[in-house]
Design brief:
- The structure is a homodimer of 239-residue chains.
- In chain A, 43% of the residues lie in helices and 17% in strands.
- Chain A is α/β, with parallel strands linked by helices and 239 residues long.
- The longest helix of chain A is centred in the C-terminal third of the chain and has 34 residues.
């Protein structure tokens, strides 16, 4: 078992941002896939507890100041806490610093919106959670509806569970298709959803409208002001 | 957002066992699906840090002695740490106590082997990770190869990522198909694996043999003695 943990000889290095209000599954998909092949740093302001949007307390292994700077992958998960990170200059500055040297700059779900706010997706295509394309585009990034989008060394995954498809694609890129398939078999990723409602197209208009109305308060009261803040600071920097 | 956390008016209650060497994704699938509808207790010996088999530190919110005893769901995830739990009489006794009163007794991956060791699957059909059917059967449980098996109030999921399919099935059972579909849409669960190697049948004999050889040491050196211990104690109790 110890041979399958972070001491793997095939080890690549990952810095994964974690933050309050992050969605656990956004992070757990890639972390669990990569964890058998990589050394993964879970990074927030300082080492210690971070609470996800469904109430799980996860420990940041590293802070912004002690995270190793040379990594193969920078990865940012999404979640309801995304909007607070857009205002967090220390977090954005950490991402710019690590992202500048990383071989791959990646995200799951609304994590791409955080990358965009940090200026790391300028001139790249990217994907995000299906409900948030207008936000990604407001930040000047061309959004593409897909499970995984690879544009040069930017690899972004769609909403939440897309992180598993994304994680496999990244693994194939870094350690080869055979290692990715072996990991897929190990994690028995042969999905068989009991219902067919995993995208707006499949769920239909009524259900999509219902979910959008659940998300609407969060989008108008938190996302919109946060994006306006990013755009305002960007203009100030340019001027 | 606060309306979507553990204070949901639709709240059901879940006790989820977490333990050292647990597989993060086994737990994160159902936790993230249910977390918008339920109050979820993450339980180990006492409140505090538990390290998963890919090195993530998660906090147990409750210990065996302070976990609420009346829950709708008992759920046990799997992982490389499974075998140590089979020897842990305090954990098995906790599971028997909570499982006795739970509306549903459930598991993901090798979590069913822990339930079996606790005597909670006697006379039930169940599923587990594809590599561990002989172990489940050695403990006297009829194993069925499937993503999700429902046998009366026992609902078990297959390996790791099957926890998402399982979690949706359980959610439909508890709060209805519409709520399950809404959650599926929210989590964008419209899987599109980049490779087709998620089961022994799909991965083929060569790759399956390669993964089994990776798992073999763990199975022979840890799983086998642990199962023999369970069977020995069972005979002693009967005699």
């Amino acid at each position: 078992m110890s041979s399958m943990t972070t001491t793997s000889p095939h080890g690549f290095k990952v810095a994964m941002l974690i933050y309050p209000g992050m969605t656990l599954l956004d992070m757990a998909g890639p972390q669990n896939l990569w964890g058998f092949h990589a050394q993964i740093f879970l990074v927030w302001e300082k080492p210690g507890a971070v609470i996800t949007d469904t109430g799980v307390s996860i420990r940041a292994s590293h802070g912004f100041d002690d995270c190793p700077t040379e990594v193969d992958i920078l990865c940012v998960p999404g979640g309801f806490g995304t909007w607070d990170v857009l205002d967090n200059e220390a977090a954005l500055s950490f991402l710019r610093r690590i992202g500048g040297g990383a071989r791959y700059v990646t995200s799951v779900c609304t994590g791409s919106i955080i990358l965009a706010a940090a200026g790391l997706l300028e001139g790249y295509k990217a994907t995000t959670h299906w409900s948030t394309y207008p936000i990604l585009e407001a930040l000047g990034v061309e959004g593409v509806r897909a499970r995984v989008i690879t544009d040069r060394n930017r690899i972004t995954g769609g909403g939440v569970t897309a992180g598993i498809d994304f994680g496999l694609a990244v693994l194939a890129e870094l350690v080869g298709e055979d290692a990715a398939k072996t990991t897929q078999l190990m994690l028995e990723y042969d999905p068989a959803p009991p219902f067919d409602a995993g995208s707006p197209e499949r769920a239909g208009e009524e259900m999509t409208t219902a979910v959008m109305s659940l998300l609407q308060d969060d989008l108008s009261q938190k996302a919109l002001p946060a994006v306006q803040g990013v755009l305002r600071r960007r203009q100030t920097t340019i001027a």
